[in-house]
Amino acid sequence: MQFGHLELFVSNVAKSKQFYQEVLGFEITAAQSENLVWLQNGSIEILLRQGQPAQLSQKYEHAPSGIVLYTTNLAETKALLESRQLEFKGTVDSEKCLTFTDPDGNWFQLVNPHDH
Description:
The chain is an alpha/beta fold.
């Protein structure tokens, strides 16, 4: 077996597509329909699928899952994302593990894998 792709159930595909593309910088690789949009960042593919998102959690460590994004320059990436109106929700485990959510409350962690 090998990793295929992540499938995220979202309440509004258009809104999520805008967030992943304009805020996180994912590339849209295909739109099978208005309810199925493929995105890519590096070797990771995400399929946004119209559906019922997971239950919202108020904290990263209480979420049913988390997506971890790597950067080689945490401060620079944080500043870039904030300039794109991303609101960080705090940290987990260390001040070098920044957390945020997408429009449906899916949790992300942003870290430098060599410095956390």
